[in-house]
Each structure stands twice: as C-alpha cells, then as structure tokens.
Design goal:
Two copies of one chain form a homodimer.
Chain A lengths: L21 H19 L1 H5 L12 H6 L2 E7 L5 E10 L4 E10 L5 E7 L2 E6 L6 E6 L4 E6 L5 E5 L5 E5 L2 E6 L1 E6 L5 E7 L8 E2 L15 E7 L2 E8 L6 E7 L4 E8 L4 E8 L6 E7 L15 E5 L6 E5 L5 E6 L2 E2 L8 E3 L5 E8 L5 E7 L4 E3 L5 E7 L6 E6 L6 E5 L6 E6 L2 H4 L6 E7 L5 E7 L10 E7 L11 H4 L4 H6 L3 E5 L8 H8 L9 H25 L3 E11 L1 H10 L7 E5 L13 H8 L9 H7 L12 E5 L4 H12 L4 E5 L10 H20 L9 H18 L4
Parallel strand pairs in A: 34-35, 34-36, 36-37, 37-38, 38-39
Antiparallel strand pairs in A: 1-2, 2-3, 3-4, 5-6, 6-7, 7-8, 9-10, 11-12, 12-14, 14-15, 16-17, 17-18, 18-19, 20-21, 21-22, 23-25, 24-25, 25-26, 26-27, 28-29, 29-30, 30-31, 32-33, 33-35
Helix pairs in contact in A: 7-8, 8-9
C-alpha cells in the first residue's frame, strides 16, 4: 500500500481521452493573461511602470509554484477567502497563506501565514469562516473574523505528529472537521498521542512508516459545550472519510475501513443514539462515489464507455432524465463539488473531462439542458454561496497560472477577478498542445505536447515522455503530476515533453474489468490483465513517440521517459519491454518488483498468480516484472526514491549485475511527493543532468559533479561494451 | 553486511569442541565465590552482618549485567585500573565506570562514570593512563591522573554521531588511538562531520544505516604539537584496524579496506615519508591474523585439524619448535593478547579453547614447555606490566561473575584480588555442565547444559536450545551470545537450556574449505557447502536434543530453539528442515532469505548459485532458503528484529500465508544487539511468554497482554486445524 495504489484512490485515478481544443484554449489563455496582468500589477500600474518583459522558467519557479488549496465565498457574494500553498525555498518548507479578496475590484488583503492552513469553511448562519491552522500549538480549529484575525475555536492539546504523502510531519490536534447545516454542530477528527511503543508488532507493509502518529484517531461531534465521541480508529488507518450530515444535524454518515475484512463500511451516527449503525459495505478496493443530486429531484450519473458516455439523472420514480453526451466523469476528487439551487431547479456539478484532460463545471436545468461554464482550461475549487446567486472558481491551465473568477450560478457567466500567482504571469507561456493518441490495440491515451521554447520547424529535438496515470491535465505546474521532473525547464533547454496519461478505465468494459481484477478474482486470464493495465500503456507511449518522430519533430535516438509512483511502474515496464526509450527516470515506485509481493500480496496474486518464489508463477513474473527482465533493458535507469524499499534496491542491483547503467538516489527524509523545496531542486537538477548525459552526451562542468560523471562514464563504457552490435 | 557476516569477523567466529572439565570447574567456582564474597563485602563484614542469602535470577539482572571492557596494570604492578560497562535500567542506557584497585588489598576507588569510556592505556615512560571518554564534548582523549581526575589530552571539536552493532549513537571526536612504545607519539582516529547530504547515492545494502557518521574518518599521528594526516577513509567503512608501531615510533602499519576491489590492504606510514606504502594484501573475506612471537625468537601458530592440533613456533631459520598438543586457537579477538619477557625467554599468549569453550593464558618457555595459568573458567582482558613481573586478568565463567586476579608472569601463579560484580555474587549459581556432542556426520559441537533451578531427577522438563555460532562459552551473562534470550530466567522457571555452538571450522579441512567457499569460488558442490555450513548444525542440534531426551531429562514435545544473527540463520533453517523443535525465536537475522540476495550477492552466489529469480538457482534455494520452505515449517516462529529488512518480513508473511504461526516484532530504534535495557526487558519477556505459550500452553494473566494472547490463540487454532493428522 506504500507505493501508489491506495484503496481510497486507485480507481479515482482514471485517464481521459478526447479531441483537440487547442485553438479555443489558446485564445482563452491570451485573454486571461491580459486580464490577469492588468488586474494583478496595481503597484506597477500605479507607479506608471510598464509590465516587466516576459521571462523564462527556472527550477526555482517549479519548486516554489503555488497551489490554491481552499476557496470560499461570502454569503453576500461580495468577497472571497482563499488559501494558497507554496514552496518556500529559503525555509526549505511549504508555507500556506490566507487571503481576502474583493470580488468586484480584485483588491486583496493578506490575512494569515502559517506552516499549515487548510479546511476553510463558511460557518453556516453566522458571520465569518473557520479553518485549521498551526499557530504554534499544532494544527487546531480557528474562527476567522472580518479583519483577518484568527481566534481559537477548538484547541485539542493532545497533539500527535502525523505526515502525509506530500507533506512532512506536522503536529495535529484536529485534522479535519465539518459544520452541520444548522451551524450549531460540527464533527471533527481529533488526534490523540501516546507514549510511542518502541515496538511495531506484525507490520503489514515495508518499509515501516514513521509518520502515522501514535494514538487512536477520534471522530467526535461538538454541539455547544457538548462533546460526543462517535468512534475511534487506529493510528495509521485512513480514519473517517466522506462525512455527510443528514436532516440538518440529527445524524452523520461516514466511511471507515474494516481492517480485518479488508472492506469499507458506511456507518451512521444518530444524535442521542448510543451505537453507530452500519448502513453500507463495499470491498476496500472499490471507492464508493456519492451521486450528485440533479434538478429533476433524482441522482446524477454517467453511463456507457468511450464515446457512448451519457449524463443521466435517475429520477425518484426510476425513470431517466437524459442530458446528452457527456465528455466527462463525475465525482473525481480533483474536480469541484455539486450544488442545487434553493428552488431545486438548477444544479451545478464539477466535472473531469476526457477529451482534453481538464476540470470544469456544468450547469443543468430541469429541462434537460446542460451548459459548460468554460470550454477550455480548468475550473477547480468552485464554490457557491447559500443564496445561490454568486460563485467563485480557480481558473488555470498547463500554461495559465491560477486566477480567481466569479460567476453567476443563474446564468453561468464567468468574470475574471484577479490572478492568484502574479509572479508566474510574468513567465512567457510555453507552447502546449493537447493530443489524443490511439494505440495499435485501439485504446486512446490523452495528453499534451510541450514544445521546446525556441522551436524551429524542420529541426529535430530530444523528447522526454512524462507520465503518472491520469493527471497530465490542465492544471498549472501540478507537482502531483510532474513530481521532480522539470517539464518546463526541459522545454526551456530544447526538449519536447510528452505529458501523457494511461488509457482511461472508462474507455472500455474490458479495461474496467481488468482494473477490477487487479484486486479481486475475475474472468480474465492473468496475461490479459497484464496486457490491459501495463502493456497497453507501453503501446500508447510508443504510439505517441512514433507520432512525433513521424512528424519530424523529434530525434528517435534521443527519447527518454520519466514517471513516479504509477508512472514508475510504467517506466520500469517500458524499459524492459520496449526499445523506443533510451534513458529513464523512475520515481519512488517499485510496484511489480518481486520483493513487493509480501507487502502487496492481495494485488500481486491477481497480477502474477502467486509468490515470485513459486515456480508456477515464474512465467507471469518473467512476462512483466522488471527485475525478472533486466537483461532485456533498453537503457539507463535513474531511480529517485523516498521510501527505500527493497523493490527499488533489487531492481537497481539487478540492472547493475547485468551491466545496465542504473543509479539509485535515496532521499531518506522525504515524502512520496517531496515536500522540501531544496530537495526538489536537487532532484530536478539530477534529472536534467541524467537525460542531458544519456540522450545528448552533455555534461555539466560544475567541478562538484565530477564524481557523478566519473560514475556515469564508467557505466556508459561498460554498457557500450556489453551492447556493442546489439543496437 | 548488515546481518551477521562482517568481513572482519566471519572467520573470527569459530566453534570449539572438547571433553568434560565440570568437576575441576565447579571446584574452582566454589573457591571463587568464597574468595569473592569475603573480598567484596567489606561494608557488610565491617558492620558484622552475615552475607545476604543467595537469591535467584531476574530479567533485570540480565539486562543490567556487567561487562569488563578494559583492564590495565601500573608499572610497579601494585594497582590496576578497569572499566566496567553495565545496563542502567533507570536511564535506559548503558553506562561505563572507571575504577582503581589496590592489587594487594583489593581496596577499590571509583574514578569516573560516563555514557562512554574505552581505550584505557598506560602511557609509556610516563606516569598515568589515558582513555577515551565522553565528558559532555563527545568521546575525546583524556589523561587519568593518580587521583582519578580526567584531564583533556586531545579534543577534536569536529564530533560526528556514530553508532555500532551493540551501541546506540554517540558523539565521537576521537574513536581510537594507540601510543608508540617511546611514549612520544600516538596514532589516533579522528571523526569529521559534514552537513549531512540529504541523499544516499547507490547504497550497497538495505536497510540504510543512519549510524555511519557523515564525514571521512581520519587516521592521524600526533607527536608533541606536530600532527600528521596519514589517510582518510569514507564514513561507514571499517576505517583502520590492527595498527602496529614498528621500530619504536618511526613507522606504523595498519589494515584498511579497498572497497572497489573488495580487498584488505596492509599499509605502512613512515615518519618523514609523504606517501604510505602497501605492504600486504588479502581478500576482504580473509582476516589476517598476526602471529605472536615465541620464546625461541620465532612466530607462534597452531597446525592441524581436530584432535591433531599442535602449537608450534616457526624459528627464524625455518625450523619448528614443538610445544605439543594445543586444545586452543590463537588470535581470537575475544582472547587476551601476547607478551614476551624483556629477556625474550618467556611468552604469555591468550588462548581460546576448543574442548570446553573458554579463554585462557598459556606460558611458554624456550625449552618447549607449555603451562596453562588456569584450567577452568576464562581468563580475559589479561595484561602484563612493562617489567614483566606482574599481570592481571578478569576471571569469569558462565556461573561466576567477573573477578580480578593477579599473577606473576615468571611462575604463572594466580591470586584472586576482588570481585568486579559483587551484586551478582549474591545470586545462587545455576548448574551448568559443559558438553560436546558428535553428530551423525561425525562433527563435534561444543556447549553447555544449563539445568533448571530445582531440577528433580526423573522429571522431564521443557528445553530451549540457544545458539550463536561460537560464543556459547565460559563468560558471565554474555549479551553477545545470549542476546535477548533469558537463559538464566528460563532455568529459574523450570526449563533446561542448551547453549551450543556450531561445529568449529578448525575441526576438519573440508569444513574449512566450505567456509572459505562461502565467499569465494572453490571445489565443493553448492549442496556440500550448504550441508557443511548449515545442515551440519541442524544435525548437531538434533543430536544434542536427542541426547537429553535419551537421558530422560527433557520432554521431546517441549523443545524450543532461539538464536540471533548467525543463530537466526540456524533457527530459520532448523525450523524448515527438522521436526524436533516445536517453537522458535529468531533474532535480527534473515541471511539466506531470498530478498537478501541483492544486499549480499557476493556470498549468496556461492551459497545458492545465483539470484532467487533465476530458475537455474531454484533448486538450491528450495533446498536451504527458509522462505522457500515455509510449507515444511515445524512450528511457530517469533522474529524480534532491529534492522527491519525485507528478508525478515518476507519470511514472516510467507509463514502466515501458509498458516504457520509467526510473529514479527520490530524495535525500530535499536541496534543489532539491543542497547537499551528497557527494550531488552521487553524482548526477554516476549521470549518467556512465547515459549511458555507454545511449548507449555501457559499464558500470563496480565490484562495488558490480552491482545497478544488473542492473536496467538487465533494462530494456534489455524495451525492446529491445518496440521491435524500431520503430527
């Protein structure tokens, strides 16, 4: 479970396919930049200065890039609060800041800054907001007043130290909460601390995590001064998710994991009733998606596969209201939520598009009419006021920094307000073209072609393919996708970059069946599961590269590939199946390698049919598992890793044993997504050096790197000697 | 290299065989207790009190047991200094103390106490001693004056944090040193610190060690105020060992490891010469043993195998001086050193006996006469003054706490001085009988039978075999042998304990060839190497148990086995090869398990013929590697581990997958030999609970252990269901 395939997230990561919208998108982008620059340089404009000339990308820009994590609108629709999280290179840590913005003028005021801000919520039927903040007592619950002051609302002194996949370890008193609609109650998740046990008894996974906290996680409900313990979960579990109030504040449902049975249960706490009751149950590998409510009084959902997908509302009487073709999916955790107007006649629903991978908002009327609020770029973090007469979103794309936009939910009209990352507006945008590739098996993969900065027609460039499953999409410098692969810096130094997704699980019934069979018995032969989930992607990646080679854009001798986590699976498989890629960078992965069997038995048994030491499973490992195929490796592999698993180490050592250049770089004090900006700089620089060396034969003359190049040259000589005449 | 088989120590661990000396030994023991109690209870005697009645062993006694680490005698032979290291249960750490003792009266004075004291040396041609101590500035070099004051002699402010196999991490400025015979110069090993690199590039072993220090290790020579850097070695390497001055202080030889070539080199630094020169070279798997000088002006050595071993001195003219049959080996790192009288006519040499495993001192005369200073128990830490007219040793045995004895080197006469662990003299000694067992293949294994405290003839007892290669020997509560297996507490609660060694490598030429082939090519088939190094031990262990069963001492249904490191290899092999043992405890091991291949390729290839994923090597793994044989497991296995390797985890998960009871308990903040006394208590208690449950069906009623027994009962039901009818 360490690497990539959380039971809560596996099927959330679906790919997307679709057509081209580049013209529309670029037009929108130009409008956005103009609006953003005028709105965002009040000081420069006031001083009568011309805007600074556009500049180019640096690694520092990537490591410091902003992410808007929270956005909330006032009851009267006149202003909004948002939280932005950025890498602070000087402090070598992430920092969050809370900002107030006037939605009509775009005027802003900074409210607070902290190592941790999250969970920004309007308090129902009251003035002001609440949020989770670390103001020196660990993360606790605060109220924000109109002047930006944070007043303690709930302090739990029993803080525990807890980490997350993309964060270092922080002290948490309260880690999550949610107001009941009546504004009188809130549920909250409290951490408790224990004197740490010096032992770990019967761990289920390796390497051991030291970031789980010590004491049980408690779900509690607070109403005035009354505080009720609903349930406890063990430290290190996923705790409680998808919490929903029913009937104002009389009951609360939530999902939790039943460890022993490897299942998820939905439970209901009812005020005044002592025991919680179980209301639903699912396999732990299936994430229950809540259907949004539609304007017909029913539940919204999509049906069909591939180009046949439709949006339908299942009405209370069982009949269907058809909204027509749907180029999107609902319920993706990265898209916005859903709202219904007080009269129930209009619904707003967050979407994730398949054609060009992006996030949007559609407006549905009882008539069956469906309207998109934006036809290009992404709308994320959207929210609507209680009166349903004002809304705000973050608009962004691969080339457009996040910008605040407001909209009228009744007519869907979008108006730019202000850039949320003005320092990034000054960077001259790169040329990014969305594409869909259909592979030899007929499966589609979506993605983008990033052009080198000074692209000249007729010249052939090196290319690096970057992949991480499904998040090559229209968000701005998303570390969740590009990790420590410096996409923008590669474009600046003359590389094409292919940002590409896996074929989406919603593309065919057979693909969906294969994904389901990743963690449960099913009808497909093991070979077919391997083909559909992994080799299918190799086919897509080769197709995308062939396309650029065929167009004369890239040099077929200078093709690299990079990916972390799910992307690392694909990179390792690609390098031991295909001869198209000449060098690779594989980030903090290792799933599919044999020594992972004992940490991930419940999925390996469906992928390989048993243990790597079982002769009956040998052929299945030999067919897919990269460590079993090192003698077929096409070229050098760099692994940058945080988890330090034997899977990563064994692949490295097996490659070296067979004379294949391999470099394994551990960052022992990092998270799966590196959270320390200085480490991100180091790792990005390693990637620049690695591909420059292996694809272009170029070396950085910095004397501090002498031992690096000595090592790499030595490996190159051995590799050339071993492969002479083979290529 | 993490687990068990350091290149520097592998062949140092040899076993021993021999006859019975129990009568002589027990007589000596009784004399010792009487002497020790009279010498050691001056307060009690002064107050006219009778000695307290003898008491029994507790786990606390074992966790706090003393180890005399250093002993040094004054020039005039009148007094000695010694360092004793003990577990401090209150501080949950080890503490060292330095003591002065008058050798004629036994009167003692405490001189100093610290988290770290070591390296006690007489300063040649000067008054006083020097030692390494941590007095708050990290470990540094101090001079001890006659009043017990420690004055700084050499402080290196660049401390680095470094750990060791049986210690936590300490700050070291200077980690080793040695005076030149003229007393004007000393070599020393200085640590240097660096800002830690956040990365580890291409590690050679997993799991990563965080205890290696950061900066290079420096070998330096100090003469007055002149300080010369001889050589640097990388942090985490073994650095510099076996340093010897030549020609007073004009040159210095030492061994160091050449990483790239996996070799050891002896180098010589010569005063005034800029470059060090290479003077010898050995495979990294062969530890060069320095031959002691004999009274004939030649070099001492033993020849032959088994009962044919002889002590001979090779004289300068090549002829041999024969001292007769030698029941011992020379050069064992646990035995005392060697001294030659100023006239060169008498040599004193530290020995390690094969018959009853113990350490001694023999006195050799030019006439070819050889005399043992003690015929039972061990003499360790022996040292002689420069004038060669006075010497001191620590005398101890499995049942006798360390006692200081003095002797006259000219006639070999031993005189008890004082007990060095008076609180342990109060414990009523257990009955311990040395034995040698000859297995079905004719190989001998030495060891001891520890009787249950209130043994009654005719009653049958449960038995636990404890093994760790070669150190079941006559030392008192040696944690290096018994680890967290509470040998004494088992005897107190009615268990027999078999403390047993592997057949010794010096027992036959074929066994020595097999050991050599563990790390280098050789003539034996792989099966024969497996048989001799591992299955031979299984045979010996079965023989020893059969012997006790045959004598009617133990119940064949209640036989357990425990061992750590090398012992863990044997335990895991035994449990998947033999049906004699019904429950096991396996400590911080994992060598022989398949995922260790990539950390220990250079030895696995000789044991298994290749990678565990290579079908050609499958039969060899299946023949020996416990993870490949879990379905043949004879019973429950507890693993208590500090290193957290995938080898340990995979064996645990594979056993569970096949329904075999298995418990894996990590102590993430421990060293290979646990150094925190509270953790040792916990681990020992787990071992008591584990064998009581699986061998006797007994449970501790402590409610805090409810979940432990629930888990074990569940595993027992599954196991009984799975094995019904099989046993």
């Amino acid at each position: 479970m360490t690497h990539f395939m959380s039971a809560w997230g596996c099927f959330g990561r679906v790919g997307a396919v679709g057509g081209h919208l580049s013209t529309a998108k670029r037009a929108w982008w130009v409008a956005l930049v103009v609006a953003a620059m005028s709105a965002m340089s009040p000081l420069a404009l006031a001083a009568g200065k011309a805007p600074a000339p556009a500049r180019t990308w640096t690694l520092q820009d990537i490591a410091a890039a902003p992410q808007v994590t929270d956005l909330s609108i006032s009851d009267d629709g006149r202003y909004a609060l948002y939280i932005v999280r950025r890498g602070d290179l000087h402090a070598n840590a992430k920092r969050s800041s809370l900002h107030w913005v006037d939605l009509s003028s775009g005027a802003q005021r900074p409210f607070a800054e902290s190592a941790w801000l999250s969970g920004l919520q309007r308090i129902p039927h009251a003035a002001g907001w609440s949020l989770l903040a670390d103001l020196g007592e660990g993360v606790q619950l605060y109220r924000v007043d109109g002047n930006g002051r944070l007043e303690p609302l709930h302090i739990n002194r029993q803080v525990d130290y807890v980490g997350a996949g993309d964060e270092g370890t922080h002290a948490f008193g309260i880690s999550d909460y949610g107001w009941a609609p009546d504004g009188n109650s809130y549920w909250y998740v409290a951490r408790t601390s224990r004197r740490p046990d010096p032992r770990v008894v019967n761990p289920r996974y390796l390497p051991l995590s030291t970031r789980n906290g010590t004491g049980p996680i408690e779900l509690r409900v607070r109403t005035g001064t009354e505080d009720v313990l609903v349930e406890q979960a063990e430290a290190g579990s996923a705790g409680f998710v998808r919490l929903e109030w029913q009937d104002q504040s009389s009951s609360l449902t939530y999902w939790t994991r039943v460890r022993k049975e490897d299942a998820l249960e939905q439970r209901r706490w009812t005020r005044g009733v002592e025991r919680v009751e179980v209301v639903d149950r699912q396999s732990a590998h299936h994430v229950p998606v809540r259907g949004a409510r539609g304007p017909g009084g029913g539940v919204l959902g999509t049906m069909g596969f591939g180009t046949d997908r439709m949006l339908v509302e299942t009405l209370p009487d069982g009949s269907k209201l058809d909204y027509g073709h749907a180029g999107f999916m609902l319920g993706d955790s990265r898209s916005s939520g859903a709202w219904l107007s007080p009269a129930g006649d209009i619904a707003l629903v967050g979407t994730r598009y398949f054609d060009v991978p992006r996030y949007g908002l559609v407006r549905l009327a009882r008539s069956g009419e469906m309207e998109e609020l934006a036809s290009a770029g992404s709308l994320t973090q959207c929210t609507v006021n209680f009166a349903f007469d004002a809304g705000v979103c973050v608009r962004q794309s691969m080339v457009s920094p996040p910008e605040l936009v407001r909209f009228d939910p009744r007519n869907g009209q979008l108006t730019p307000v202000v850039s949320l990352a003005p320092d990034y507006v000054a960077i001259a945008p790169l040329r990014v073209v969305p594409r869909t590739w259909t592979n030899r098996a007929g499966y589609k993969a979506s993605g983008f072609v990033v052009y080198p900065r000074h692209y000249q027609k007729g010249r052939k460039y090196p290319v690096i393919l970057v992949t991480h499953g499904s998040d090559a999409d229209e968000r701005f410098v998303d570390a969740g996708f590009q990790w420590d692969y410096p996409v923008q810096a590669w474009a600046e130094r003359g590389y094409f970059v292919l940002a590409i997704n896996d074929p989406t699980v919603l593309d065919s019934a057979e693909l969906r069946a294969a994904y389901a069979q990743w963690s449960a018995p099913g009808p497909l032969p093991i070979e077919r599961v391997q083909d559909l989930i992994w080799l299918n992607g190799v086919d897509s990646f080769e197709t995308a590269v062939d396309d650029l080679v065929g167009q004369g854009l890239v040099n077929a001798e200078q093709v690299g590939i990079a990916g972390y986590s799910r992307g690392s699976q694909m990179v390792n498989v690609v390098m031991t199946q295909s001869k198209v890629f000449r060098a690779a960078s594989s980030g903090d992965g290792g799933y599919l390698e044999p020594s992972g069997y004992f940490s991930s038995t419940s999925s390996y048994r469906y992928v390989f049919g048993g243990s790597p030491y079982d002769p009956a499973a040998f052929a299945n490992y030999r067919r897919l598992s990269p460590t079993f195929r090192v003698e077929m490796a096409a070229g050098p592999v760099l692994q940058q890793v945080a988890s330090g698993s034997t899977s990563q180490f064994a692949l490295h050592m097996a490659l070296r044993e067979h004379g294949v250049p391999s470099e394994l770089v551990y960052y022992p004090n990092e998270s799966h997504l590196f959270h320390q900006p200085q480490h991100r700089l180091l790792a990005m620089q390693e990637n620049l050096d690695w591909f420059d060396f292996w694809l272009l034969g170029k070396e950085d003359t910095d004397p501090a790197k002498a031992s690096q190049y000595q090592r790499w040259r030595q490996m190159r000589s051995e590799w050339h000697a071993a492969t002479v005449g083979l290529r």
